[in-house]
Amino acid sequence: MSELDFLDRIDLASVSEHPHRLAALDAFRAAGFPTRRDEAWHFTDLKARMRDFDWAQKGDQAVLALPDLSWAGVVLRDGIWDAASSRPAPFMSRLVRDEVVRAGSTALVALNAALGQDGVEMVLRDGEEGGTVMMVAQAGASAQPITPRYRVVLGAQATLTIIEVAQGSGAYVHDPVWDITLGPGARLDHYRLQDESVQSVHIATVFVAMGEAAHYNGFTLAVGASLARSEFHVALNGARGDVHLNAAQLLTGRQHGDVTTVIAHKAPLGASRQTVKSVIDGAARGVFQGRIEVDRIAQKTDGYQMNQALLLSPEAEIDSKPELEIFADDVKCSHGATIGALDPEQIFYLRSRGIAEADARALLIRAFLTEALEPIGESMARPLFEAAIEGWWRRAAL
Amino acid sequence: MLEIKGLTATIEDKIILKGIDLVVPDGEIHAIMGPNGAGKSTLSYVLSGRDGYEVTGGSVLFDGQDLLAMEPEARAAAGVFLAFQYPVELPGVGNANFIRTAVNAVRKARGEPEMDTVAFLKEARAAIKRLSMPEDMLKRNVNVGFSGGEKKRNEILQMALLQPRLALLDETDSGLDIDALRIVADGVNAARGPNFSALVITHYQRLLDHIVPDRVHVLAGGRIVRSGGPELALELEAHGYAGLEAA
Ligand SMILES: Nc1ncnc2c1ncn2[C@@H]1O[C@H](COP(=O)(O)OP(=O)(O)OP(=O)(O)O)[C@@H](O)[C@H]1O
Ligand SMILES: [Mg+2]
To answer: Could you tell me which CATH class the domain B2-239 is placed in?
Structure first.
């Protein structure tokens, strides 16, 4: 389907006449879905996937259970704030989009800006401790692209943990955009679980702007979608910013998963650590692109990036593209990439102890992921993520 | 009881085992000695079911069951335990979690109830104490960063907790200091009883001072070329393997 066919499907009458929206719509029309000719999308052919996209595969949203909402949180259904299921924390509110949302740098962000109905805003005062909140996006009943916008603003020294869950059934396009601003010394823990239906397309874009000594601690686990991409743009604008940005993607069948990160060190003494792991089975394909930019002024930057793939079948594929762009002379930046398979010696060792072959493989895959899961520590989010890994394994073993 | 008859096996078309006949009755400990490359580890791997070996002839019965027809995990459930000559490292897998998973897999296969973490840790700590091992061994990743001797002791810890009916100890004494050697031997001796038998592969008479075997066999060139009582080990220590292969 071309962009025009795609837009034909959309009820454009409902698109607001706000100039920001119209400009964004034009921007999307002009750019179109990215193709492999776009350098940033060289390994992920969204246009081709959209061409075959079958909107008719409908899911039954009623079958989806909400994750345990013992924390405060907001549920969006097909991108719309669901007041009945939500228990927003005092600092969470519905985002008035026309006023704050502008077209962004990429076609998908422009699409989000043009079409987005609802959004969630989380604004914490200086020193405020927000605790843990859930942000659940459920999808399935929508023939329209789902384009929520999240705006997070943490004042100086404020802290917040967000557990984000995206899930759904049937075929849909989910295009969420996060716009995060961290004040001096603020800390955001952002744990993301992408557990979309396997017919869906999920393209998330996360922008993080960090003040002095701010801390962004992120972990994304991607197990769903037919095509998924999580794209991060993190800017360390103040000195001594600290970024921990980990991800794990588990892919099987014909799934395509992409983790793309751009970390821009724009001030001295910043640190960024990334560990991205891909487990790829069947004829699935994984992509990791990670760019670290170090400006001339960003002396004493400490950047670390590790990207590892475990290929479980002969047709499984990974493309990985690390890029370091360093303009400062006194920095420490390292990156590494490994690709491997499960080790038959290790499998035999486990089996010789009575552990069945499938369990031995699951244990080793879980072990492979351990380092990537570090940012979630022993937080209350852990059981949710462990269950998602376990569920993927059961599905892949079928 | 383990009964090996006329066992022949190849690896990558190379004939390694050329007709092994060996019976280990319940409650007995037999030692296997023999030169490097004789096929001792190959025998222990074939018995525990490692991939890559082709059994071209003969049979192995364990308690009357056809051992060679079983998957490695089924052999473990039936009570076979291999202490590896080179224990494998499992980065990212905690030792306690690993051993508990193994113990519960085996218990489940035997129709016994699984052990919860608390009960398991209690047993594991008691075993560690008995074997004079450092307590942090349970917390570390399986064999990762363990010294050579620690890896061997970890094999014995697994043996103590899995309580096999047949232990195959492949050079568990190699690389052990004198105290560790005694610890490992104590571990085996503690398991001794009417329902436990073992094949102890070793190059050194020293171990057999601590674990006194019922029989000693010499494996050379893919065959058992001599068998005798514990005194055979002393004789080998004095005269070496020269001339045995032809015997
Ligand atoms: N994968 C393999 N490919 C080819 N040959 C092999 C392979 N594995 C083992 N062998 C050969 O099989 C023979 C027997 O090896 P094995 O490890 O059983 O000897 P061993 O008696 O245990 O020796 P050691 O006392 O040195 O441990 C050796 O000649 C060895 O090189
Ligand atoms: Mg050997």
So the answer is: alpha beta
